[in-house]
Design a protein that fits this description.
Layout: E1 4-10, H1 16-25, E2 30-34, H2 48-53, H3 55-73, H4 89-114, E3 117-120, E4 122-125, E5 130-134, E6 140-150, E7 154-156, E8 169-171, E9 184-188, H5 192-203, E10 207-211, H6 223-235, E11 239-241, E12 245-252, E13 255-262, E14 265-271, E15 273-276, E16 280-282, E17 315-317, H7 328-342, E18 356-358, E19 363-368, H8 371-376, E20 381-387, H9 392-396, E21 403-409, E22 415-422, H10 425-437, H11 442-446, H12 457-465
Parallel strand pairs: 1-2, 1-6, 2-3, 6-17, 8-15, 9-10, 9-15, 10-11
Antiparallel strand pairs: 4-5, 5-6, 7-16, 12-13, 13-14, 18-19, 19-22, 20-21, 21-22
């Protein structure tokens, strides 16, 4: 038997590595198991999907592609004139890799600085808080701990009609590695990942078609915001086809033919590359020994309670392998909650205040409940909306599309949700998260002084608009 630890964490993604660092800060003896290996096979790579092939590299490409599109189409209106800009895909990818390497290397330094023991290999949960780790050579070592935290994340879902085909049909990870801009690009799935990846390559010159099986665009988003979002994306040239169910595909003569059905019957789409972005599934295959005491549901998620405790005492699970949204920041918060509970504290994650973001341009972000959810629950509410078109800072930045929307309880005025489409929505939404975390009313925000000129003034105006008091927009007349 190898060394015993207070906590062993399986997985070094945003849930696992944050939990490991926090556990060490709390004085616990902690080890973190991670199987990800560098391309040369020589060293362990930390950060999980998010840092290596997810959140961070995709944001790097989104940022670069947005700058390129702005240079192509937005600078002239602002008086900046130059000859045609061009995109160097190789250099763009190199820039992305540099950012990824800096961040993953930074985690290794944080582990070292905090006294976290990294263990390279694939972890498997055994009975009695034991973890079996298999290294790249197939050797196994068994470790023991008082507590085990499962943070193994998720991977892209594959669908039978479109099997992965190297060079032609890829998942979200492969879409971050294209060596040239495809002339025609197909994307299956108009969710967060599909829209972000479609946006990247559309900005760089691809003719992008997105096929979505559902008949509602972004059903998880407040529909006033979702409809505005769809209009913005269509204006940008994204061809989004709803109610389109993919039935098959083939690769011939360096082209991918996608067969799908819509309201008009059987259809066909020909593209140079196809991205499958239909969701993610939890990484729980071969993770649990039969006598581990940890149970899965029919979709492969680990059963946990509100504090992320599994059915096996002393074994916890966080992030994408458990219920709730598959978000890096949700995983991190759960990781911190779990290790603090292990250390004897009693924190709780407020799942009602977890922000969601789509990092397109304009960005889309939301927290709390939508109008549709509140109507379905029979709740009485009031709404305040303010457009960025009336915001001076947004106009000065040549980014004045979209809105801020605040929903408050009709009787108590407590903020129930905030929804944003527009410039820096990912940053602005934090104001709604903080307000809701403190139980703020719309009046609390309305009585708060915001700097001028800022994008955040739109939050102030939306809060004022909840009770018909917006200053820089005409308020809706209240029904008598």
């Amino acid at each position: 038997m190898a060394d015993k630890y207070d906590v062993i964490i399986i997985g070094a993604g945003p849930g696992g590595y944050v939990a490991a660092i926090k556990a060490a800060q709390l004085g616990l003896k902690v080890a973190c198991v991670e199987n990800w290996t560098s391309e040369d096979g020589k060293k362990q790579v930390l950060g999980g999907t998010c840092l290596n092939v997810g959140c961070i590299p995709s944001k790097a490409l989104l940022e670069i592609s947005h700058k390129y599109e702005e240079a192509q189409h937005g600078f002239a209106d602002q008086g900046i004139e130059f000859k045609d800009a061009s995109i160097n895909v190789g250099k763009m990818m190199s820039r992305k890799e540099t950012i990824v390497n800096q961040l993953t290397g930074g985690i290794a330094q944080l582990f070292k600085g905090n006294g976290v023991t990294p263990i390279h290999g694939r972890g498997r949960v055994l009975a009695n808080h034991q973890v079996e780790v298999t290294d790249n050579d197939g050797n196994t070592t068994t470790y023991e701990a008082d507590n085990v935290v499962i943070a193994t994340g998720s991977n892209p879902v594959e669908i039978p009609p479109t099997p992965m085909t190297e060079g032609y049909i890829t998942d979200s990870e492969g879409a971050l590695e294209f060596d040239e801009v495809p002339k025609r690009l197909g994307v299956i799935g108009a969710g967060v990942i599909g829209l972000e990846l479609g946006s990247v390559w559309a900005r760089l010159g691809s003719e992008v078609t997105i096929l979505e099986a559902q008949d509602t665009f972004l059903p998880m988003v407040d529909q006033q915001v979702a409809k505005d979002t769809l209009k913005q994306f269509q204006k940008q040239g994204l061809n989004i086809k709803l109610n389109s169910r993919v039935t098959g595909s083939s690769v011939k003569r360096k082209l991918v033919t996608v067969n799908y059905e819509d309201n008009d019957g059987e259809q066909e789409l020909k593209v140079d590359k196809l991205i499958v972005a239909v969701g993610r599934r939890p990484n729980t295959d071969n993770l649990l020994a039969a006598d581990s005491g940890v149970n899965l549901d029919e979709r492969g998620f680990i059963f946990v309670d509100d504090t992320c405790q599994t059915d096996a005492p002393g074994v916890w699970a966080i992030g994408d392998v458990v219920r709730g949204p598959m978000l890096a920041h949700k995983a991190s918060e759960e990781g911190i909650m779990v290790v603090e509970r292990i250390a004897g504290h009693k924190p709780q994650v407020n799942y009602d205040c977890i922000p969601n973001v789509i990092y397109t341009h304009p960005e889309v972000a939301w927290v709390g409940k939508s109008e549709e959810q509140l109507k379905a629950e029979g709740e009485q509410f009031k709404v305040g909306v303010f457009p960025f078109a009336a915001n001076g800072r947004a106009m000065a930045a040549n980014s004045a599309s979209g809105m801020v929307k605040i929903i408050a309880d009709e009787k108590t005025d407590r903020i129930l949700g905030m929804h944003v489409i527009g410039p820096q929505a990912s940053e602005i939404i934090a104001q709604g998260v903080i307000a809701m975390e403190f139980g703020s009313s719309a009046e609390d925000l309305a009585l708060t002084c915001f700097a001028h000129p800022t994008l955040s003034e739109s939050v102030h105006e939306a809060a004022l608009a909840v009770d018909g008091g917006a200053i820089h927009a005409v308020n809706k007349r209240k029904k008598k």
